[in-house]
């Protein structure tokens, strides 16, 4: 009976160590996860922005409307279901960004805890000087 309890205790501790290593160790190496996305309004006017995220099957999994003042930057926190590595299968997601119901841009990416989608409103193109209503990039740690 005592041997059986020792075996069960050993197996339980082993499982906890493996799960702890899989969940906690990536945070130890890479640091805290980045926000899901950031939006920076580089214009002198207020804007209303709708950010919608679709999964691989074109099903909406996130939709938020944000109002931005001139020169304002917002960091949107990552939902819990996207916070821990390994809890959700990482698949392609499509970000659909609409500004003032006029300009829309789509951006396809994989969402990981250490990636952040950066959205810039009314930014100037460095070469042509043209003003883009929506520019989207991604940051990876």
Describe this structure in words.
The chain is α+β, with helices and mostly antiparallel strands and 141 residues long. The protein folds into two domains: 1-31; 37-140, Immunoglobulin-like. The protein is 21% helix and 44% strand. The protein has one helix and eight strands, in the order H-E-E-E-E-E-E-E-E. The strands form two sheets. A four-stranded mixed sheet has the order 4-1-7-8, with no helix packed on it. The protein has a four-stranded antiparallel sheet with strand order 3-2-5-6, with no helix packed on it. A hairpin with a 3-residue loop joins strand 5 and strand 6. The chain is elongated. The mean pLDDT is 84.
Number of domains: 2
- In the CATH hierarchy, what is the class of the largest domain? Mainly Beta
Give the C-alpha Rg: 21 Å
The CA-CA distance between the termini, in Å, is 50 Å
Tertiary shape? elongated
Low-confidence stretches: none
H/E order of the elements? HEEEEEEEE
Determine the mean pLDDT: 84
CATH architecture of the largest domain: Sandwich
Percent strand equals: 35-45%
Tally of DSSP β-strands: 8
Q: In what order do the strands lie side by side in the largest sheet?
A: 4-1-7-8
Helix content: 10-25%
Tally of separate helices: 1
**Major sheet description:** 4 strands, mixed
């Amino acid at each position: 009976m005592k041997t059986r309890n020792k075996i069960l205790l050993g197996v339980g501790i082993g499982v906890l160590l493996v799960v702890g290593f899989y969940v906690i160790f990536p945070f130890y190496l890479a640091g805290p996860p980045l926000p899901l996305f950031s939006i920076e309004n580089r214009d002198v006017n207020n804007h209303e922005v709708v950010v919608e995220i679709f999964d691989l099957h074109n099903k909406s999994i996130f939709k938020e409307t944000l109002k931005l003042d001139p020169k304002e930057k917002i960091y949107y926190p990552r939902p819990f279901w996207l916070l821990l590595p390994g809890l959700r299968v990482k698949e392609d997601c499509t970000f659909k960004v609409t500004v003032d119901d006029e300009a829309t841009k789509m951006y396809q990416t994989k969402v990981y805890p250490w990636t952040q989608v950066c959205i810039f409103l009314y930014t100037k193109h460095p070469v042509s000087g043209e003003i883009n209503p929506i520019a989207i990039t991604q940051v990876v740690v």
